Structure formats: C-alpha cells, structure tokens
Fold this sequence. Notes:
It is a single chain. This protein is an alpha/beta fold. The protein is 37% helix and 21% strand.
Amino acid sequence: MNKRPVLLRHAAQLITLQGTSEQPVTGKAMSxxxxxxxxxxxxxxxxxxxxxxxxSVTAFYRDRLHEAHVIDATGRVVTPGLIDAHTHLVxxxxxxxxxxxxxxxxxxxxxxNAGGGxxxxxxxxxxxxxxxxxxxxxxxxxxxxxxxxxxxxAKSGYGLxxxxxMKQLRVAKRLHESHPIDIVSTFMGAHAVPAEYKQDPDRFVxxxxxxxxxxxxxxxxxxxNDVFCEHGVFTPEQSERILRAGMEHGLLPKIHxxxxxxxxxxxxxxxxxxxxxxxxLRASDEGIRQMAEKGVVAVLLPGTAFFLKAEAANGRKMxxxxxxxxxxTDRNPGSSPTENLPFMMNLGCQTMGMTPAEVVVxxxxxxxxxxxxxxxxxxxxxxxxxxxxxxxxxxxxxMQYHYAVNLVExxxxxxxIVVEKGRLTDDLSVSSA
Length: 433
C-alpha cells in the first residue's frame, strides 16, 4: 500500500455525486453529477480527506504538497470507483457451445430445459475444487479492475447443494480478502431447480428454506438472498417463501425478476421491500410503479439482453416513474460473459433510453445503494473510501460517445494505485481501508 498521501489534480471534470449517500438517486436528480471543474482530491490512509477545486485543495495542503504522490488528471474525467451490483463471479467451465446453439435459433429456456444453461455451469462448478474456482475468479477480478470496477456483488447459485453453494461463498470471501476489489456476497441457492427435483420442485424449495438458508446465515458468508423468479424456474409463491425465509435469518432480499416474461416479480420485490429487483425486461407498469413507491432499486443488465438478442429493459420508463436505476454486467458464463462495465454504460444509452449522466449514477452511487455500500463508496466525499477512476476522456458524455473501448487510465482503490496507464500495477496487495 502507498503510505504517502495521494493528490489527484486538475481533473477536467471531477464527478463527485456529493450528498447522495443517504438514499438512492431518482428522477431528474440522476442527471446531476455534482461536477467540479479543475477538481482535486487529497487522499490519505486509504480515505478521501478533501474534494474541491485544485486551487482550494492545494491551498489547504500547501505545507504538505511535497509529501504527496501526485496524479495529474489534466483533460480527464474522474469518477468514483465503478460498482457492479450483480455478478455471478465464481463458477467453473464456460458455455461457448451454447452460444453457437443460440445463434442457430435455440432460446435460453430451451437450452436450460435440455440440461444446458445453469445446469451446465452447475456440473462444472461442482466438479471444480475451491482452488480452481479461486484462480479462475481472480483472473476475472483483474479484468474488472482494469475496467474501473472497485466493488462488486458476487452471487452463488451454481452449486445447488449446500456443500457446493458454501464452496462458492467461501471462494468469494477469500477473494474479498486477497484481491483489491471489495466483494459483497449473495446466496442464490434458488438459481435453478436441479434435474432430480424437476417433478417435485417444492421439495427443493424445502431444502433451500430449511437446510441451506439457516446454514448460510449462520456462516456469515452472505449478506443477501436471491431467487430466480421466472416461469419454469421458481413461481412467485415459491420465490416469496424463499425470500421470507432468508429475511427471518437476517439475509436481505434480492430477486431476479420478470426477465423472460411478466411474472409478478417486480410486484413481489415491492411487497417484500427487497433491496433490488434485477433484470426486469418484462416488468409490468404496475410493478414499476410499486417499486418506485417502495424504494426498490432496479438493477438493469443491458449486456444480457444484448447477448440474448432480446429487447432491453426500459430504463427510461423506470427513471421517469421514479425508480432508482443501477446498471451491471451480470457477469456469468451463459448470458453475459463480460467484465466490461463501461460497455454496459454505453448500452444503457443505446438500448435503454438513458442519458450519459444517468448511466454514471447507475454504475456508482445507485449501484452502491443496490448492495448497501453507499455509506462507504459510490461518491467522492470526505470520509469515504478512496476509490477513484481516471478516464481518458475530456467529459462524461465523451465516455459514452466513444463506445466499446476501455478509456480507463488510472484506478485508485482505497488510496492505492492499482491500475496505471491502463495496466495493472505490480503490487495488488489489499488495502486496510
């Protein structure tokens, strides 16, 4: 860890998002980035100490400027570290053969019902050792870091037995402790119904509720509990039972909702006060209205729709309805095999009707709220963890205009420079911040 203070200077646009830590950002406020021109940040001991104009920061620290490691951000945009609020980080195997099947016309659910999809990844994940899963996932995290991601959520769900779900969660905990990226874990034992319970899915729900959830909660390895509420997977009634069981054991509810068809998932999220409802490609207008009323964050996954050749979720409609929107990669082996969160920002503009300002909010502070981390990260304010990204772009709109390329130049994680000139630094030791 860099023991010297870090002074980032002369940012053309320093996107601070100040004052957004208490509640997710909604409506017209998603267009206000709280930009400081010719901005500067003083970082010490892994935390932000001052955010202001370059003139003000250098004047305040004039007697200590010689101590600082200086980063010149002239002509560049600086944002909070990007946050990916929905990933399936830890898994074994890959599914490029299924990609060819989809290109030939097979649907996602057709492949899954034939034993592919999640079941394919489950077999590979169950067969992999913890060390193999750790090594594979560590490489994925390195790619995330190079795209400016400094915090992400990681779901289990490719184990589908208590033994293998716990294996995934242990790997995620180890990665959190050994890699610069902070990882928030979600238990998703209800990701699919295993083949042996296909004729009696309620029996598998019993296992999730009575065996898996209590053990996961006791282990402390997960903060959230998620379920795939979809026709052919888990019904709204089964999903509610699973989420309520998690709540009884202290696991906060999340839900994969209304991805393939309208299925009352958004309404269920609102009824339970879920932290987030994710996917939402086919969410009803009433579900969207209820989510706005109850403050449920919509985590939208434009890469999944893009990869499956589906119509994207209507981010514009949700924002206009007062829903707080976040964007994510949905990094997984089947429907969104990418770590490129900035490309999701591009797609948010191109396919979801969102503005360049809104997609920045959606991948920083709103994503932080979607995983209950907004008190630590997601904006540039005194006292927060010093997670910042320097983009080789003159303004935030250019970041979306110059699409599908990696404009990340420098990444600072907890005050430590972990990406420099677009490349990982030699020392990726974990900060104590």
